[in-house]
Amino acid sequence: PSVPRHTNRLINEKSPYLLQHAHNPVDWYPWGQEAFDKAKRENKLIFLSVGYSTCHWCHVMEEESFKSKEIGDIMNEHFVCIKVDREERPDVDKVYMTFVQATSGGGGWPMSVWLTPDLKPFAGGTYFPPEDGVHRVGFRTVLLRIAEQWKENKDALLESSKRILEALRHTSEICVQGQETSPPPKEVMDTCFQQLSRSYDADYGGFSKSPKFPTPVNLNFLFTYWALHRTTPEGAQALQMALHTLKMMAHGGIHDHIGQGFHRYSTDQHWHVPHFEKMLYDQGQLAAMYSRAFQISGDEFFADVVRDILLYVSRDLSDHAGGFYSAEDADSYPTSTSGEKREGAFCVWTAEELRALLPDPVEGATEGTTLGDVFMHHYGVEEAGNVDPMKDPHQELKGKNVLIARCSPELTAARFGLEPGRLSALLQECRQRLSTARAQRPRPHLDTKMLAAWNGLMISGFAQAGAALAEQGYVSRAAQAAAFLRTHLFNSDSGRLLRSCYRGKDNSVEQSAVPIQGFLEDYVFVIQALFDLYEASLEQGWLEWALHLQHMQDKLFWDPKGFAYFSTEAGDPSLLLRLKDDQDGAEPTPNSVTVTNLLRAALYSGHMDWVEKAGQILAAFSERLQKIPITLPEMARATALFHHTLKQIVICGDPQGEDTKEMLRCVHSVFSPNKVLMVADGDSAGFLYRQLPFLASLERKDGKATAYVCSNFTCSLPVTSVQELRGMLSP
């Protein structure tokens, strides 16, 4: 590679996104005191650009504007320019995204915001083209106009930024109103179910026409709604909606049929043409959802999808030390000699390529049939490409095919006169060949940043899959990742989590010079992961760490006046607002998951003040939960669990004994959202016995593994048969 003409101070950062901009002619600063001091000293406005390394439009804006010497000169002359990786600093992103959404009615990345030297926003947007067009003002024009305004109308700008901040502070406040209590669960659950039903696409699954996102939070709500209403028509409908959505996604092009795992979202109604980036948080949550679908339905189809996701993550997103990387990009070079990257280039195929790779005649099929014929029919391949030009504005996919399972295996087998079992083996052979061919292509960029929160979601995915599919290897992988977190993303001296670490040279794990402290979401998703991992592995050390982190979360983030948890700690002068997220999106909002975490923590520790805190969170969000619960499906689900009798399933027995294992398999095979599982192994000095003295009174019956179902620390009669236990597990 040629020696870069420019290098700015981002070269000293660890974030892959910041490093992508280290050779721009823009004099970028990372978010921090050096940049703030310069803006004040030189009385300059700040231009803040926020994005992430796998963001397609971030790449476009960099190519068009940030690599331009002319635009770089304008930026450097008039502004102090700051670059932020939103995945490293969700706190900074959230404050200014709240502003952009409030003032422009939309949001997204790259986010472009202009701030006064004291960090108050006054103008903002997302992507800007470099030059003026018919319908849009160009970036160069915006820069020059804002610089001119600062020169001519500084006082008016400062006054306006002050007013904007006050308004934001007022509208973004979430706190308990008067004597409000947690909202009525039946009303919240029923309203949420009705709102989801209205937005549900009965043909293709999912909850919008297009674009279509996986939204695991909606599926998790529907599974819980079914579990609590299984004998009603609404319960059956909820289950059907969730299972149909998961099936259609797995058949669609959003699912990578050759390289496994799921892309970010579909640009169309049919789950066909995706935005091709792959995010760790999607893989973790979808592994958990497909595991639940298998638990509930017993259909091996869902178990196969779980294995597919976890194969992808183990192979492509795993660090050798045990952590999980953040994401893979959508864009890549079509060939090793290509000059520019294209979206989806790594994943798409021409009909001609497929024919050349799959020329073999198929024995026993209709005469003249080749492997290519069978594969192309099954996966909807067309000679001229199968991508609707309307979904391909830049013509990057012209003539290409995004694989989508268009037929059932039975129909494809019948079409070519094959047995279904034989067809399955043939398709597997085809996919293997294409995988080998694809490995010769240049790979998309890999973001090797490792985030505590997203690692937490992925640990939950592995742990829940290990329990539901009875695959010990998945539980071991979850434990390896949890040990990685404890080594690299936890400070044992302070007892606090860190946000991020990075793959360094020679595959070492590196930390920034000033490590970023964990945010609320890091604590919440790691605590959830540790509870899931305890239930799958029964290693009490994970439980002990989870309860320690819950105490720390309370100390750092709890709002004693308005209730619920702030997303960030107090005391950072560079953060103008201390916010509470109020919407479950691609990931659930931390307060939603925390309600369930607190209930689990109380049942494992006997600290009932955690139940009270859970109720106070629901009270703080009460108005939203009653009016538009579809924006908080994970919290709506938690509302039902809060008011439902929670069960402690206690199994007394030797964890290595076959009779104990059989009972554990029974518990793991049933989806029961309102239970926690624990094994009382007779070690009275153990952590659980110290937390829950009532365990000492439970014993084995007739020397066999014995189960007790306890609520409010009062236990049922002992049960030694798996059939009886199964009957007691339903909500």
UniProtKB/TrEMBL annotation:
<dbReference type="GO" id="GO:0005975">
    <property type="term" value="P:carbohydrate metabolic process"/>
</dbReference>
<dbReference type="InterPro" id="IPR024705">
    <property type="entry name" value="Ssp411"/>
</dbReference>
<dbReference type="InterPro" id="IPR036249">
    <property type="entry name" value="Thioredoxin-like_sf"/>
</dbReference>
<protein>
    <submittedName>
        <fullName>SPT20 protein</fullName>
    </submittedName>
</protein>
<dbReference type="InterPro" id="IPR004879">
    <property type="entry name" value="Ssp411-like_TRX"/>
</dbReference>
<feature type="domain" description="Spermatogenesis-associated protein 20-like TRX">
    <location>
        <begin position="7"/>
        <end position="168"/>
    </location>
</feature>
<dbReference type="InterPro" id="IPR008928">
    <property type="entry name" value="6-hairpin_glycosidase_sf"/>
</dbReference>
<dbReference type="Pfam" id="PF03190">
    <property type="entry name" value="Thioredox_DsbH"/>
</dbReference>
<dbReference type="InterPro" id="IPR012341">
    <property type="entry name" value="6hp_glycosidase-like_sf"/>
</dbReference>
